[in-house]
């Protein structure tokens, strides 16, 4: 039985806003994933890079827009008495800005300030304990392969919100959707039948 759903934030609940190309320009190098770059840098460079990232993140949080259907979808989950959580590679400060701006509430939140960032499964294990729900009964929803990798490694079912065709081959989501409100159909799927764990389902 599905008992809880974990959502990514940027790109899943909100439209992607952080200009990572601009972040790299300010850092002064093509660094790829900023968190990975910072982790491998000297303490001084790490502090500088994270300061730049956090500045762009906070700006994006203040300018954030919800994806269509988010509010209605969360209201549906509340009526179904499904517990919800937020898991993001962003800072807790930017999370708080987004939630306050859009009047959203999540009882359970894990940011990069609380645990290793995705794709490491540790943040889902932490949320599993916080929610008192085994990962077998959790669903991880995100818009990038790191969300799927994180969920798979922790033992949850996974949902990919597509912005374009998913071409990754190292990890395949259990479900793919084109709009966040299609989570409703996945819940109905769980209610009607056991999930076929082989392959994926499109909605």
TrEMBL record:
Organism superkingdom: Bacteria
InterPro entries xref list: HAD-like_sf, HAD-SF_hydro_IA, HAD_2, HAD_sf
Keyword Hydrolase recorded: yes
Residue ranges of the TM segments: none
Record carries keyword Iron-sulfur: no
Pfam families per UniProt: HAD_2
Keywords: Hydrolase
Top EC class, one word: hydrolase
Molecular function via GO: phosphoglycolate phosphatase activity
E.C. number(s) listed in UniProt: 3.1.3.18
NCBIfam families: HAD-SF-IA-v1, HAD-SF-IA-v3
Protein name according to UniProt: Putative phosphoglycolate phosphatase
Organism: Kuenenia stuttgartiensis
């Amino acid at each position: 039985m599905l008992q809880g759903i974990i959502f990514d934030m940027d790109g899943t609940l909100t439209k992607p806003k952080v200009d990572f190309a601009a972040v790299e320009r300010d850092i002064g190098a093509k660094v790829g994933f900023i968190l990975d770059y910072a982790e491998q840098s000297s303490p001084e460079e790490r502090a500088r890079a994270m300061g730049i990232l956090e500045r762009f993140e906070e700006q994006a949080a203040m300018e954030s827009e919800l994806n269509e259907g988010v509010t209605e979808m969360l209201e549906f989950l509340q009526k179904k008495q499904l517990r919800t959580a937020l898991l993001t590679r962003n800072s807790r400060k930017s999370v708080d800005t987004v939630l306050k701006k859009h009047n959203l509430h999540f009882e359970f939140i894990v940011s990069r300030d609380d645990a290793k960032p995705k794709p490491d499964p540790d943040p889902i294990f932490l949320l599993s304990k916080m929610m008192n729900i085994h990962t077998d009964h959790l669903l991880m929803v995100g818009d990038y392969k790191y969300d799927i990798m994180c969920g798979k490694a922790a033992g949850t079912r996974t949902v990919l919100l597509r912005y374009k065709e998913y071409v990754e081959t190292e990890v395949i989501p259990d479900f793919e959707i084109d709009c966040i409100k299609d989570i409703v159909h996945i819940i109905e799927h769980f209610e009607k039948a056991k999930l076929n764990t082989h392959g994926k389902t499109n909605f």
